[in-house]
Amino acid sequence: MEDDVQSIAKSLPIGQPLRFRYLLFLWPLLWDRFIRTGAREVLEEASKYFQKATREDEEAESEYKEGIDLLKDCQRGKGDSEDLEDCISMLKRSLELRPPTHPIRTTSLGTLASALFLKYEKTGSLPCLDQAISLRREALALRSSPFPATGRSLCLHNLAQCLSTSFDARECVADLEEAIQLQKEAVALRPAPNKKRPLALTILAIALRQSFTVTNDPEELDESMSCCREALELMPHSDSGRTTTLGNLGTALRARFETKGSTEDLEEMVRMAEQALEMDYLAERSSQFSKMHNLGVALTTRFERKGDVRDLERAINLFRGALEHPPAHGPAERAFAFGSLASALGSRFELTGSASDLSESISQFEKALKVEGISQRTMAGSMTNLGESLRKRYETTGKVTDLDRAFELLQQALELRSPNDRNRPKTMTALALLHRTMYQQRGDFSSLEEAVQLHRAVCKSRPLNHPERPYSLSNLALTLKERFDEKREEADLEEAISTLQEALSISADDSKNQVLILNNLALVLRDRFNNYADRDDLNAAVAHLWKADNLTPDASIRKSGTTLNLAVSLQFLFKETGHTDLATCDQSIDLLKKALDLCPPPHVDRISRLHSLAGAFSTRWAATSDQGNRTLALEYFRQASTYEPGHILLRLKYTKDWANFARSINDPSELEAYSISMDLLPSFASLELPVKRRQAVLSQIKDIACDAAKCAISYGNLELAAVFLSTGRSVFWSQALQLRPPLGNLEAKSPELAQRFRAASQKLEKSAYEDSDSSSKPSNLSFDSMSTARSLVDDWQQVLTEIRALEGFETFLRPKTFDELQESASNGPVVLLTSSLNGSDALIVTTEGVKHIPYPQLEYHHLATYAELFTEFLSATGEGSKKLTENQVMQLEILQQETRGARPAQGRNVMNLDQRFKSLLKTIWMAIVRPIVVALGLSKSTNPPRLWWCPTGLFVFLPLHAAGIYGESTRAECLTDYAISSYCTSLQDLLHPPLEPDPQFKLLAVIQPEAVRGSNLPMTLKELEKIEAHLPSPVDKHLVKQVGTKSSPTTVDEVLTGLTEATIAHFGCHGKQNTMNPLQSCLLLSGGELSMSRIIRCQTSKATLAYLSACETAKSDDASPDESMHLAATMMFAGFRGVVGTLCEIRDEDAPVIADGFYRHLFLRRNSNGDIAPDAKDAAAALHFAVKKLRDDGKEIRRWIPYVHFGI
């Protein structure tokens, strides 16, 4: 055989790779013969062939040796990036000199792959990782199965390690699955007592643990731990690789603890990390990064379970120490370390409230996000952690931009989490907590609903033995409690209690979550006590809170919360004893002062401590009549109401509490409290919110303006009361109009600022309407829309500030003074009607001032009954509804007696629908409207003067314009005999006069005789005929017809385009009110729905009058009556100065009659040239006489009462 090999080697030319292989193969053959024979000449011959082989591979070997020396330096941390690049270049040249048939090409492949892998670890370069994988694959292919097991096992191991790393970077499950299979084969090729078996087992353990993060299969985690344990048994204690295996076992133990909650796993994890770090110190290794980090994580995990602060402090020091060393395995490790330090600092902040800890925590999370080359999973974790920290800082400082950024990060993090990601629940929890904070900030109920859904999903994903399940259950329960506070549904409260009881039963006694659970359980038990007055619930709540307070260290930031809850519960006990146990009250006050001291400014939650102290001192004042308690109560109410970092919704609630207390003791600060409330209103429904969300939050404060006005009236400040009503009514429209003010004066002063303001307003308005086309309930906002809107608001405010700096523009867009609002009465008196639980009143605004008309006998429940009956009468249809129910008769009798009206003329159960209306209208006349007529000194007239109604609260739902006594010939009188009625949503509606009458006017008639939904409306064509009959000739010059049919539908865009050019717009079609989302109330066209949200975007400079001959176009929204969320108000916002609308459904056959009378009167006016020029100011009179014609014809009240006029 030797001779054959020698003969072949000599026959091959120098440089041929096969020649090198045979020369190299001769060396062991000749060496073996030398051992057998001892012949020296054989040894010399073997040496000769070895030297020949070496000389022929000299260049490749030279490059290889230099490259591997540099690689070793880089692996030890001695070389820099330039050295690594040189190393890779040399190894690449060496590989090029060793083609696929070269006998030691496999070695070159492996070494170059190692260099490229090291570069990936240092830079995160995925192309380098991909090249390393490719080289490892080629090396494995060269080590086919017949090759010796040792060499193949090493190749399998190296490729598996690269694929595992690729999975970390890309989360490609196929990479991980292949890595596991390769590594299992590598382990099989290294049976015990093979020295390399422990390393192979460790790498397999890592891959299996990685797979567990994807599959959540506990068997994979158990197998991973078994591999680690076997590896440790096979390793000598001095083996440097033991530290890596200990670290991996500790990580696996932590994963199992997080799944099953075993204390044994927790303690063993810490022991493993301790052993690993001790071995590192004994070996004096230069890098301590991974081991210090692993022990820090283990200690942090134990702290989270047991709450031992010493674990937390040591963990922080270990994380800081780890970051002083370079990571051993790429950028992801460094990102983890930044995140771990940040989390630990955040935990310490929760204990101590140290602002510097929170600030540094956020800074470290920011660093983690900036690390390049980290995986999607790592990125999601960093985003989640940073989002949580920003939320905490917001709750401490009230900085709204933190809330915005947190929302952005958590939404993105959730998108990065796959459905099977075991950390997805953590991100969902963080997002749920943020939604709850947003609800507390704005009172937006949709945010609370989203929080409930997220918390439910998290609890569903947590098995019974999961250590985080108690915390998740507690979060869900607290959110359910808040929903109960909002909706008062008993099921929410009971579920909250049972959920917390489960959480407490599975929470370990040494768990730091126990304080949170005890707190929350006490709160819901206290709520149940409030509802059912079961003293056992209150006693249990107090007991839980004493335990929670004792378990919470004084240095903990949570101490303030537990102390507050305990103090408030003691106040409940004090009240339950009939205010006799002053010791309990004093103990409560002492605890409240402590809670306040533990929550210094500018912490957001300080406001609740101030308010609770106000409540405690007001209670003590009631028990003792001590003037000092009275003074302190008022002072704390004032501090709570003016505490700017506090949530604005809380400030509004607390000003109401202040006002109520001040009124109970006849203290004039009641007016101060309401003044603060009114100043807060515009900020509550900020322009940064889309219109749908703004409308939703305004429903939370629907009574505040009426209460404030009543207070001002009681102190004789009638002008301030009028301002309160004007400011607090139609906040939605008032804010929207700030984006569309007249800019003529500003154009003259500063064209540049006028243009900037116009551009900023248009951008902000466009942003606000982004979600308004949806027919769903108000939904959650994306971060992009929130942050964009906030930025646009900031830009708009900046321009506004510059405008107000101009001489003469200091009050530009500031709230109107009474002197300015009084101009609204220049064409006739305006009657402001207000009612609250404190009483009902009318304020008559005229050019001479304000006159007060009290309604001492008109109570809130009277108005509620009037509104209820009117709504029932309007909806009554068919024969079965023609008889008045006994209950309704009794209601009318009681109301008329209480408000000095006359009893119904008919006996019970004999009144038809028309008689019902007459009875109700008579009651309203006597109780509300007639006193106004008398106060104004009005007389019956065939050409009566104008009178505007600006109702608030429940008055909004009453037909004031139709009030009167009908059908009693000797006593018959009604408002229409004395005045022509119009309505306005606010005094501001009447401040700007319409355009001058234009003989070149355009009338847009949108007629829809064929209904896509509902019955056809053939009489709308008759309406059109009546309009054409009264238009001046030539009709085509003035009339733009859009007659929609099923075959030729009228589209929404066509109508909106027509509106921009129209002077008058007439709609003959179906209308629909959307009670769930008023912004989707609409006019039904044959080609679509023309909704409020679309009309709002329309802005016309030529509009003067809109006539909405459709159903429910002036019907107010029950949830926000003062916001005038109906189509008539929307048309006014779009630019029409007067609008004819309807309160309910109208009869198709009546529409042409009303239109005929209306346009006959409207087109009577001629200008000085004799041309017909309709004036919007004549619209109210035109409607007045048109309705009078229908009424005089003997039509039922239900047929003519719906028609109303709004505006000038």
Automatic annotation (TrEMBL):
<feature type="domain" description="CHAT">
    <location>
        <begin position="920"/>
        <end position="1207"/>
    </location>
</feature>
<protein>
    <recommendedName>
        <fullName>CHAT domain-containing protein</fullName>
    </recommendedName>
</protein>
<dbReference type="Pfam" id="PF13374">
    <property type="entry name" value="TPR_10"/>
</dbReference>
<dbReference type="InterPro" id="IPR011990">
    <property type="entry name" value="TPR-like_helical_dom_sf"/>
</dbReference>
<dbReference type="InterPro" id="IPR024983">
    <property type="entry name" value="CHAT_dom"/>
</dbReference>
<dbReference type="InterPro" id="IPR019734">
    <property type="entry name" value="TPR_rpt"/>
</dbReference>
<dbReference type="Pfam" id="PF12770">
    <property type="entry name" value="CHAT"/>
</dbReference>
